[in-house]
Amino acid sequence: MKKVQYSVGLMANPIHEGDPKKAYANLQLTGVVGTRELAQHIIEHGSTFSRGTIEGIISDLGVCVREFILQGYKVVLGTIGSLEPEIRSTGAVSLEAFTESNIEDYYVNFRPSDDLQNLREAAEFEQTTTRAAQKATLKAQKAGQTTADWTPKDEDEEEEEPEP
Question: What does the DSSP assignment read for 80-124?
Answer without folding.
Answer: SEEEEEEEEE---SSTTT--GGGEEEEEEEEEE-GGGS-GGGT--
